[in-house]
Design brief:
Blueprint lengths: L1 E4 L4 H12 L5 E4 L12 H6 L7 E4 L2 E4 L1 H11 L10 H17 L6 H7 L3 H23 L11 H15 L8 H10 L3 H5 L15
Parallel strand pairs: 1-2
Antiparallel strand pairs: 1-3, 3-4
Helix pairs in contact: 1-3, 1-7, 4-6, 4-7, 5-6, 7-8
Length: about 210
């Protein structure tokens, strides 16, 4: 497999965690979202992913984009360890939380949107994340065990950790979100989350390396 990724991309990080958890080795091709006006806009990359976004994964003779679609494919082709619970209710909760982050928070504060916001970009990002986290904190109080849904790592957790990192980067006050904070801390102790971390990628700038 070949993963087209950017060290700081939260969507790419989700997929890196999934690959690490499932023990799938891969080659990483960095796509710098800032350099040269954004390498994702090159004709070469557009041929791989017409949406001109990372991640993209070349695997089993196909090219997949969209992090949750990639994770679902990995789940179906490499079912162990599972990232979707067997219980239908818990599985629905995992998907709900993953969609809450992947559709309801992350796109509102990603690079393309922030460029449009100009000087207000930090305030905009903080408001989008805080609004989403207020709802997420409430949801997790009903679903969480050690992790987002019960005591098994799931696709929801793969979305949570990168989003908390974004919140910290934009200096969101995490005080009102004790459940999110607790789960995030527990997940960051796991090896798959450590090795996939933005501070440990081939394209991480020297000053941001762990």
């Amino acid at each position: 497999p070949i993963l087209y990724s950017y060290f700081r991309s939260s969507c790419s990080w989700r997929v890196r965690i999934a690959l690490a958890l499932k023990g799938i080795s891969y080659d990483l091709v960095p796509v710098n979202l800032i350099k040269d006006g954004g390498q994702q806009f090159s004709a070469e990359f557009k041929a791989l992913n017409p949406m001109q976004q990372v991640p993209a994964l070349k695997i089993d003779g196909i090219i997949l984009s969209q992090s949750l679609a990639i994770i679902n494919y990995l789940e179906e082709t490499h079912p162990n360890p599972r990232l979707l619970p067997q219980d239908p209710k818990k599985r629905a909760q995992v998907r709900m939380i993953a969609d809450h982050i992947a559709s309801g928070i992350q796109p509102l504060q990603n690079l393309s949107v922030l460029k449009q916001m100009g000087e207000k970009k930090t305030e905009w990002a903080q408001n989008c994340i805080a609004s989403g986290f207020q709802a997420l904190e409430h949801i997790l109080q009903h679903t969480a065990g050690r992790y987002c849904v019960g005591d098994e790592v799931s696709m929801a957790d793969l979305c949570l950790v990168p989003q908390v990192a974004n919140a910290e980067r934009f200096k969101v006050d995490m005080g009102p979100y004790p459940t999110i904070t607790r789960i995030n801390k527990a997940l960051l102790e796991l090896e798959a989350f450590k090795i996939s971390h933005p501070s440990r990628q081939p394209d991480t700038p020297a000053e941001l390396r762990a």
